[in-house]
Design brief:
- This protein has helices at about 5-10, 20-25, 45-55, 145-150, 205-210, and strands spanning about 65-70, 75-80, 85-90, 95-100, 110, 125, 135, 140-145, 160, 180-185, 190-195, 215-220, 230, 240, 250-255, 265-270, 275, 285, 290, 305-310, 315-320, 335-340, 350-355, 365-370, 385-390, 395-400, 405-410.
- The protein is mainly beta.
- The N and C termini lie far apart (about 45 Å).
């Protein structure tokens, strides 16, 4: 269905009877009466404190980092295809729009997006190339045609792609591992990760989870039809992207907790075809077996990680680098965020990693930007996601500091 046809259809995504009134109104292009935005102050003492932290960040020679925007609870990001606005999700109830109006590579305005709607953990925004914005929530996926045009108004065209309660069964809604992410694949379908809520998924849940794609990655057409499970055996993936050349899906996964400081490793995975299984719950990370399933034969063929990362660093958002600003060796490399450990006796992570991939698909991961853990083992920031800007620089989100950072290269 073309963009024009979808807009003309108005309710093409099948509104259900329990849709909140404002979503129903917006789906029918009706005003809600909401007129106020929440604006976030930029600059001031708070910004100065973050800028002082950024002076401590270590980068390869020639790279610089600066504060791009103050964005409370900043999680995953989606840069509009026209380069006008960046949408930033949260694990709370806000989605933020971030605009650099004068193109000085520092945001001028941060305000809430679609303030007449009530979001529930809108962690995962993503864009299609033709300007459709999707937001993956805890148990719903919303679609905003022409978001870069409508975002200046409190009222925006909005529709259900997946109605509330249809992304996962309502009895599986959890406070744990509910941060969804999405990306549009080279096949034009939307890919959505569905973390499973347990540390190690129990055996009596596996059939149900496999059916729904919980503990996996699902895909569907961008009109909401044709849903299928694309990826199995995932614990909790909060970052994926498609290789710009091969089109293969690569994604991060968080490993099992409670097995010690140094095992199991984190994962960066390479998926070469639909339906592959990546080991959970029989494996906790890498080739390390979980205690709960240690004595059992693994009943599936498992694809092990393309790259293993340090245990408990919490590898989250990632993007392939597609710009032209950085040195040539970074072209088509993965930039990913390590959020940082919550239960390791000595904290690790809180940095940006880079993964280089050779012609055979072999991957090597190393630190790129680090220093958000100080000499007192205190977190000064916790990176969440990395995206490309149109000028070839990258943005990094940080939900502890509540900020976006821009990293660029100067010869």
């Amino acid at each position: 269905m073309t963009s024009v046809a979808i807009l003309a259809a108005g309710t093409a995504w099948g509104q259900s009877a329990d849709v909140p009134d404002n979503l129903e109104k917006l789906s029918n292009f009706q005003s809600t009466g909401v007129t106020d935005f929440t604006f976030v102050e930029q600059g001031g003492d708070y910004a100065a404190g973050i800028e002082a932290t950024l002076e401590k960040i270590k980068l390869p020679d020639g790279f610089k980092i600066g504060l791009y925007a103050i964005v409370p609870d900043a999680r995953h990001m989606a840069v509009g295809p026209q380069g006008i606005v960046t949408f930033v999700g949260t694990r709370k109830d806000k989605v933020w729009s971030v605009t650099d109006r004068n193109k000085d590579r520092v945001a001028d305005e941060v305000k809430d997006f679609a303030p007449s709607l009530t979001f529930s953990i809108p962690n995962g925004p993503c864009f299609s190339r033709d300007g459709f914005l999707y937001i993956a929530e805890q148990n719903r996926v919303l679609l905003f045609p022409a978001a870069e045009f409508f975002y200046e108004s409190p009222d925006v065209a909005a529709f259900n792609l997946v109605a509330k309660g249809d992304l996962i069964p309502t009895d599986e809604e959890s406070f744990n591992h509910t941060a969804r992410v999405c990306k549009i694949g080279p096949d034009g379908q939307i890919y959505i990760s569905l973390g499973q809520p347990f540390n190690v998924a129990p055996a009596d849940k596996l059939d149900k989870y496999n059916e729904w794609g919980i503990g996996g990655i699902i895909r569907m057409k961008t009109d909401g039809t044709g849903r299928e499970v694309y990826t199995y055996g995932v614990r909790n993936s909060v970052g994926h992207d498609f290789h710009p050349v091969t089109g293969e899906l690569w994604w991060t996964d968080n490993q099992v907790d409670g097995m010690g400081d140094d095992i199991p490793p984190g994962e960066i995975n390479r998926q070469t075809e639909a339906g592959q299984h990546f080991g959970h719950p029989w494996y906790g990370g890498g080739t390390v077996r979980t205690n709960e399933y240690a004595g059992e034969e693994v009943p599936v063929e498992v694809v092990h990680p393309a790259s293993e990362t340090i245990a408990h660093a919490a590898d989250l958002g990632m993007s392939f680098y597609t710009g032209n600003m950085f040195p040539a060796k970074y072209k088509n490399a993965i930039f990913s965020a390590q959020h940082g450990s919550w239960n390791r006796t000595t904290p690790v992570g809180a940095r940006v990693m880079v993964t280089f991939i050779d012609d055979e698909g072999n991957a090597t991961t190393e630190p790129f930007a680090e220093g958000w853990i100080d000499e007192n083992e205190e977190y000064l920031g916790r990176p969440v996601d990395v995206v490309n800007l149109r000028d070839g620089s990258i943005l990094v989100s940080d939900d502890l500091a509540g900020a976006l950072y821009r990293i660029w290269y100067e010869e």
